[in-house]
Design brief:
The complex is a heterodimer.
Chain A (H helix, E strand, L loop, with lengths): L5 E12 L2 E12 L3 E6 L5 H8 L7 E6 L2 E3 L3 H6 L1 E4 L11 H11 L4 H14 L15 H13 L5 E5 L7 H16 L3 E6 L11 E6 L2 E7 L5 H9 L1
Parallel strand pairs in A: 3-8, 3-9, 6-7, 7-8
Antiparallel strand pairs in A: 1-2, 1-4, 4-5, 9-10
Chain B lengths: L4 H19 L2 H19 L4 H6 L1 H27 L1 H6 L5 H31 L6 H25 L5 H28 L4 H30 L2
Classes of the chains: A alpha/beta, B mainly alpha.
Chain lengths: 236, 225
Amino acid sequence: MTEAPVIIEVERMSKVYGSLPALRGINFRVRRGEFVVLLGANGSGKSTLLRLLSGLGKPAAGLIRVGGWEMPGEAMAVRAQIGLVAHQPLLYENLTARENLDFYGALYGMGRAEREGRIQELLRELGLLKRADSLARTFSRGMKQRLSIARATLHQPDVLLLDEPYSGLDQAAAELFDAMLAAATGEGRTIIMSTHQLTRIPEAAERALVLSRGRISFDDAIGRRDMNAIYRSASA
Amino acid sequence: MKTPFITSVAAIIKKDLRAEFRARELVSLMGLFTLLSVLVFSFALELDREAREEAVSGVLWVTLIFASILGLNRGMAQERDQGGLDATLAAPVSRSAIYLGKLLGNFFFTAIVALVMLPLMTVLYGKNLLDAWVIGTTVIGVFGFAAIGTLLATLTVQTRAREALLPIAMLPIVLPFLLTAVRATTGLLNGAVEREWQSSLGMLAAITVIYFVMCLLLYRYVVEE
């Protein structure tokens, strides 16, 4: 069986905030359709790495290539292929669920008819259709996170970047989120999800990267490994 | 791959107007501040009618600058706190389009406040501010403040002391702009020779264009980490 092509390439990438190095000499590749979980303690550089991959920041050195497009020169092309879910929902509280999605759809260059159809489809899939015309500020944390998933997948991106998506979710919302991730994997999307909770590694995740003090200290398939032991030794 | 410039600008303006129409937070905040400021200056200058008439253009522009700072701080804080700016920046949208969209929204909100302020000041200060040239000067000035303010508010909102930092960063930069605007308005209100206020107005328009173009070009560096 032939291996899926590489969709994300990061080479010798580093990032510095002032004099503080956040990421140092990061190297990894992700194949199309792979589900990678990014582990690490708070402050290990997970969010910084995801921000750089999503085009929200520029590395101090090194190379990032997504779908063959290189950043920062071809950042627009990279951004078009990425959907970002952060621990903040990244929604406008004074807009309804539908208006939020319509706004982001327009920013991704989707035509009105295409937007309307896709928004309706996503709201139905995520169980938000009845609240489509309610303001986002009236939503629970779980509903906001579902709406956030809808925002991130609206333009059918090849790559989903999820930064601590389980934070603040109750058990029911977390289970629904697991199902959404499984569906996204089934659709062939590439997923990189950061978490610091080992109990929250989804079953669909195939590979783990552990970040420790801005460096990758572990990069391998999850399989039946004891992630607790790996995480402890890689974070030490 | 990149979303068309006009589509992005229109989407951002539509979103800002829609959100403000629902919350009525920025315009009411700026409107209330403007009303209080105009009344306080009017009472403070009550005893000296001559001084009050001479101070009209100063009161107008100082009030507009602070009202504009208030609106910019609040508007950009909402963007940052709700994370909307990050999601917008993560989209394949030109940074200049984001700047222009935000600028036009800010301009619209401040212009509404300014256009309510002019008749109010006409009544309280006994000077006709409803003259077409005064209105035109005010619109140009408000656009200039919005142009500088949108850039600086995006910059300062990323800091901890954002509320305090925006006026500190903005006031020295708008000083040449403020002086020209006050000179043009004073000339208009006091019936100065046409050539005199027209040259100030021309200079105001030129400074506005220069600041606008500079801010448009610089915005991408401000939002990049």
